[in-house]
Amino acid sequence: MNLFDVYPLFPFELVKAEGSYVWDENGNKYLDLYGGHAVISIGHTHPHYVKLINEQLNKIGFYSNSVQIPIQKELAKKLGELTGGYEDYSLFLCNSGAEANENALKLASFHTGRKKIVAFSKSFHGRTSAVVAATDDKSIIAPINETSNIIFVPFNDEAALEAVMNNEIAGVIIEGLQGVGGVQVPTDSFLQKVRSLCDKFGALMIMDEIQSGYGRSGKFFAHQHSNVKADIISMAKGMGNGFPIGGIIIAPHIEAKHGMLGTTFGGNHLACAAAIAVCDIIKQEKLMQNAAEVGSYLMAELKKFEGIKDVRGYGLMIGVELDNYAEVRKKLMNDFKILTGVSGKQNTIRLLPPLNITKAEAEKFLQAFEQVLNSVAVAK
């Protein structure tokens, strides 16, 4: 049996990882500024993370949500303490970002009794049924996913948003920072307009913090930079540092009923152990503060380089837009053994390193980046 060929792959296998570094099968060491789509939040193979997962595996690895699982409540408590203002919200656990967003949209529809969802240009919310329909990429929307229930509005366009809002809208879904869309930053004013219009028409504000959450922006959630509070927030990626887990946190005014949401694997013992380790390390090692400090340094230095069209983001979610992005990214990987992400449609390199990256490691990237920019310019 062959693998279904849907992924463009790096030309190597990774066999070892530690901190901000990974090693391939030939012993080459790479600085990982990609983290497998922003998943690695606390660094690879962190000792506390490995310890908690091993300890849990030796007790019980899995049982479904048909029994009490106290470790879920422990995770909810630690998560609430980290969020900075969402302690009174409830947690529903699932397995992935797409699943988190599916549950968010479903819950908004249940709560309001409505069908319509507002989404935005350049958005990406996942590849499954409703959330792929709310993703601004027709190439990944199959005919079965097509629906008239999604209304797309230009990102950061307050007038356009106001024009479509009415009493038929169940919710507005927006990323704290657009990831696949090229690290596009919602303005404070725009997020505040989303909040006020949702209040006006009885819709729910859904913040997709799957890539931008869990401390990556320097705050626990990126939308907290704009001083707004959402009704539902979706999470995944950095939540388990590579162990599959996702979730939504839900405002107190949204009523739970038995059977309205469900999952077989979501919130299992091992997943919760991984997520608890992430919470512990973010708190103990002050990783939000590190993300803010190292991220600010990176962005300030990147803005000094000639040839860069734009630098966008918060903390350690940074988009670097430049015309020859693909060549620069390839040279960083091949010549300097540095892995980065990309948003090809936006000509943007995405920097998504572990939140415990050091300033020295950031400096290593900046030196390599400068050399690559110079070599590309000379070659032309």
Automatic annotation (TrEMBL):
Cofactor entry: pyridoxal 5'-phosphate
CDD domains given in the database record: OAT_like
Q: Which domain of life is it from?
A: Bacteria
Q: Name one GO molecular function term.
A: identical protein binding
Is this entry keyworded Electron transport? no
* Record-linked InterPro entries: Aminotrans_3, Aminotrans_3_PPA_site, Class-III_PLP-dep_AT, PyrdxlP-dep_Trfase, PyrdxlP-dep_Trfase_major, PyrdxlP-dep_Trfase_small
> Entry's Pfam families?
Aminotran_3 (PF00202)
Read off the SUPFAM superfamilies from this record: PLP-dependent transferases
Keywords in alphabetical order = Aminotransferase, Pyridoxal phosphate, Transferase
- Show the PANTHER family listed in the entry: ACETYLORNITHINE AMINOTRANSFERASE, MITOCHONDRIAL, AMINOTRANSFERASE CLASS III
Q: Which family does it belong to?
A: Belongs to the class-III pyridoxal-phosphate-dependent aminotransferase family.
Q: What is this protein called?
A: Aspartate aminotransferase family protein
